[in-house]
Amino acid sequence: MRTAVTETVSAEETAVVAAELARELRPGDVVLVSGDLGAGKSTFVRGALRALGVTGPVTSPTFTISRRYRAAGRELSHLDLYRLGDLAAEDPALLDDEVGGERIAFVEWPEVGEGWAAEHGRVAARVRLDHAGRDRRVVTIERP
Amino acid sequence: MILALETSCDDTCAAVLRDDGTIASNVISSQGIHDRYGGVVPEVASRHHLELVNAVVGDALRQADTDLDGIDLVAVTQGPGLVGALLVGIVTAKAIAATRGLPLAPVDHLQGHVAANFVGPDPFEPPFVCLLASGGHTLLARVEEYDGFEVLGRTLDDAAGEAFDKGARMLGLPYPGGPALERLAADGDPEAFTFPTAKNVAGLDSSFSGLKTSLLYAIRDLGEEETARRAADLAASYQSAIVRALVDRCERALDQTGLDRLTLGGGVAANGPLRAAAERLGANLHVPDRALCTDNAAMIASAARFVAPVAHPGYLQLDAYASGERALA
Q1: What is the pLDDT of residue A113?
Q2: Residues B97 and B226 both lie in one domain
Q3: Containing H/E element for B13?
Q4: Architecture of domain A2-88+96-139
């Protein structure tokens, strides 16, 4: 496992770190993104999706659970499992199309559902975002 | 009459709309009906849409005092939303249409929210500016016709309803956070704290993620004890920032379009201070009944009146579309 730790001073810098990771991704990859509320998870994913060619709005998937994008011939998705609480009470098959296959997926709150996301796709990276005061963030990226 | 289904997010919804545009029934699963199914609150991605859909359709027909013989058109939300959830409504609608030999009208969920203004005891006609603010969507639309709208601006990150819910979560309030935060805010000073309203966001777009982070830092700076003591002030100031951000953009949209008619839709339209602030703009303001503002199927039936119906077997090809997959009209 390789671990890279970067301290960023702005949302823009966090997005640049995400863009660098995005360039390594291949179809079927899943990126798990953890961090507290307001830590910049969606900022990170937006940076990655922009690097993958998404030009339209990249808005929060908290309510819809998943948003899909298509760019440069690739299928992309952005999930937020927070509201699912416990996937044991859900039918995970309803989310199977959102990760894996040829799709590149970014999953916020991957802890939910006891690692469901990690089991359904090839985990290319685990990202952790921590507050370091105001707009500063510590971005930790673990690659298997 | 039109039978409509809506399953784009948490609620399983069915409604019957009469030919004269009045609502015969408007059944929403989270509003009472689930009590009969063991108190289960439907959740996204769950089997609950599948378990509830037949019962909800049955209730909609019964409350409308009709059965499938009285239905001339089946309508269903095609997107945007979670594909797995949307498919439950789409497959059910196809099955009803196919077995009864009826045409099917696919409806865009956001167009449905716009069309909520065209029904009810007090229909509101275009042209108008529509602010749609819910947990999943926040957008400003220019509505000139019954069958489409132009997006003037939208959120660049979180939806307004989501900002309410996440703020409530940070303040330790129960889910859903919007109403709880509004109640707490009623006892607070909206000017106690200064929170950002994304003034730097150009045009008619909005942004709420910076506001969310500001509340987080205010809570951290205050500490646990002081946050608890000043929770009402925090809630009031936070709510005020959301309301100002939304109403400022409504005002700009009215200026830009030259229109003097404004409507509010989505769950956030129930917020009292938002309504009060929108009224102060001086435009002719319309807010549909609460049951028509939150996700519901009556609005889908309303929109279906202005959609070209698809005949058998064409509609069997209809597929759900997730957010961001289809350009809006």
Answers
A1: 65
A2: no
A3: strand B13-17
A4: 3-Layer(aba) Sandwich (3.40)
